[in-house]
Specification:
Rossmann fold; Zinc Finger, Delta Prime, domain 3; 3 domains; five-stranded parallel β-sheet
């Protein structure tokens, strides 16, 4: 668990340290922030500080006391993590009931007991209702930390009972400096745009070769526009790609196309490396229909966490994309700007 504090966590860590120095630890703490900011790692630092026998002057854990060794071995009895039993599944009422039972007992050591629930928004309705009991009937020397990148999906009754800490995104300079320290030196501006200022996400783009896969998907997307491949075939291929932010990529391509209709510069795009293709394509599209596709993409992003059939969703998007593209022989459509583009997270 013992890792270096991430540089964009300094401000949030100072806030957490105030809880310790003022001896005013909250009963429940809600840590929120975009995916890729290391929110769980920040919570781990705070937990290890509270459980450590000899914390440093910075309040970081010492890393070598008996409690720290138990944490490193993942066997500390006063450190509990609640998460979905399988990726993509919810946190069930059975897990919360089991937690409630354990919390009826006193902490086994003299320090705090820390419970981390991540991702907190994955609690189903029954689990969230049961969890309220933990907040309404606090137990001795226990801190519950909820972590989420979608705080709006948590019930208001839970949010209102938590102290809130928002982890802010670093600026481009800080992210670039940190990435260079991780031996990532190429495409730093592009990585910042695609990760939307989330350094760990940017690092995964570089290390997992996602940039190459993104380029392949963009080529397929262009092929659909040029009627060179059927959208259903592309949807079938894309459905096989797991842990790939295809909806984000497509949304960013459509946003950039709309910006190109406004004669914007490459540096103002999410995908400046695709500027020439996007600029050429924008001259063949109707702006109003691009906005319709943009609306469909936003709706699809909202539906993504549901039980919707992902392949059917890709088919719907790609078929609409197929239908709005037109041959340049008919001339450039009237793309008089009629509305403003909205930024997305």
């Amino acid at each position: 668990m013992q890792k270096e504090l991430l540089p964009w966590h300094y401000q949030a860590w100072a806030h957490l340290c105030q809880f310790i120095t003022q001896n005013r630890l909250p009963q429940a703490l809600l840590i929120s922030g975009s995916r890729g900011l290391g929110n769980h790692q920040l919570a781990e630092h705070f937990a290890s500080s509270l459980l450590c026998d000899s914390p440093q002057s910075s309040h970081l854990s010492c890393g070598h006391c008996s409690s720290c060794l138990l944490l490193a071995a993942e066997t500390h009895p006063d450190y509990l993590i609640v998460k979905p039993e399988e990726p993509g599944k919810t946190i069930t009422i059975g897990q919360i009931r089991s937690l409630i039972t354990r919390l009826t007992l006193k902490p086994q050591f003299e320090h705090y007991r820390v419970v981390i629930i991540n991702p907190a928004e994955q609690m189903n309705n029954a689990a969230a209702n049961a969890f309220l009991k933990c907040l309404e009937e606090p137990t001795e020397r226990t801190l519950i930390v909820l972590i989420t990148d979608k705080p709006a999906q948590l019930p208001a009754t839970i949010r209102s009972r938590c102290q809130k800490l928002v982890v802010e995104r670093p600026n481009q300079e800080l992210q670039g400096k940190w990435l260079r320290q991780q031996n990532v030196d190429d495409n730093l501006e592009l990585l910042y745009n695609l990760s939307q200022g989330s350094p760990l996400l940017a690092q995964s783009y570089a290390n997992d070769k996602l940039l190459m896969l993104r380029k392949q998907c963009f080529t397929a997307w262009l092929s659909v526009a040029k009627k060179q491949i059927h959208p259903v075939m592309v949807a079938e291929d894309w459905h096989k790609l797991t842990e790939v932010p295809l909806l984000f990529w497509m949304t960013s391509w459509v946003i950039d196309l709309i910006k190109c209709c406004y004669q914007t510069q490459a540096l103002n795009l999410f995908n400046p490396d695709l500027y020439e293709d996007l600029k050429e394509l924008s001259q063949q599209l109707e702006l109003t229909r691009l906005y319709m596709l943009y609306d469909l993409l936003l709706l699809s992003r909202q539906r993504w966490e549901t039980q919707v059939n992902k392949q059917s969703m890709y088919e719907e998007i790609l078929i609409q994309w197929f239908e709005i593209t037109r041959d340049t022989r008919h001339g450039r459509p009237d793309n008089t700007p009629t509305r403003h583009i909205v930024a997305f997270n």
